[in-house]
Amino acid sequence: MKNGDGQFMYFEPVTYAPIDLDGIDPRYLTEKERRTLNDYHALVYSKLFDGLNTQERDWLKEYTRSI
Fold this sequence. Notes:
It contains 2 helices and 2 strands; from the N terminus they run ββαα. The chain has about 70 residues and is mainly alpha-helical.
């Protein structure tokens, strides 16, 4: 990405695993942090969905839910 301050690199995930939402209190997240987490969980779900059976998909859907 290039802008007025120079050219910057960005990172892409190498592994895809849900972040444990039980350890997160959403009241303390900024809107950007919340959006980043929800976007990451949507990506995890979309990457892993096809290789899972119904029971595993249900589990993944619960653990990648939006907050």
